[in-house]
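STRUCTURE:
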């Protein structure tokens, strides 16, 4: 399939969180963009079980955090700022018009777990082992990837059924209940379509 035949569909919802903050450098606003994209790969994809995977749904969540004293209109942090969002806005809960409820903590948990599920470095067995035995920080000068490889080599999991950890991106299929819950959370916080 060539690039001109690629058929991606994308839906983006934007959640805005606001909190009282007085001190310079203290977060007062977060803008979180939740994007669901249906993808047809332009190259053959495999899922984390090493089975062929054509069309799949990918989740992307990014944020912008604004702090007191920031230059007008410029965020203090953006991109994968999930830890800052969790720390500053964890008490926030929303309730939608139809009774949907959601919390920032749950949104951040889903963000941590499912962000870019179409770009996994490891198979299911490799990922489960690394969740049980995570690489230790700090990651400088030795990076996360190098530490993960050493952990997997020690467990004889660096190569799983011929796949070497990190040799290509694998797809972890996004469960329907995760998609449903993200929709409920977006409605609970009054997310706007963008």
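SEQUENCE:
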């Amino acid at each position: 399939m060539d690039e001109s035949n690629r058929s991606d569909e994308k839906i983006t919802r934007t959640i805005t969180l606001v909190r009282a903050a007085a001190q310079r450098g203290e977060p007062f606003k977060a803008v979180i963009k939740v994007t669901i994209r249906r993808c047809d790969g332009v190259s053959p994809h495999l899922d984390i079980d090493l089975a062929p995977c054509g069309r799949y749904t990918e989740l992307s969540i990014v944020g912008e955090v604004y702090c007191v004293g920031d230059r007008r209109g410029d965020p203090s942090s953006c991109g994968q700022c999930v830890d800052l969002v969790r720390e500053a806005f964890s008490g926030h809960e929303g309730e939608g018009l139809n009774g949907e409820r959601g919390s920032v903590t749950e949104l951040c948990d889903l963000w941590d777990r499912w962000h870019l599920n179409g770009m996994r470095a490891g198979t299911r067995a490799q990922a489960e082992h690394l969740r049980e035995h995570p690489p230790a920080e700090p990651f400088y000068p030795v990076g996360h990837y190098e530490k993960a490889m050493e952990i997997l080599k020690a467990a004889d999991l660096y190569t799983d059924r011929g796949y070497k950890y990190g040799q290509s991106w694998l797809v972890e299929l996004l469960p329907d209940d995760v998609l449903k819950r993200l929709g409920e959370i977006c409605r609970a916080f009054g997310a706007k379509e963008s």
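REMARK: The chain has two domains: 3-120+173-193, 121-168.
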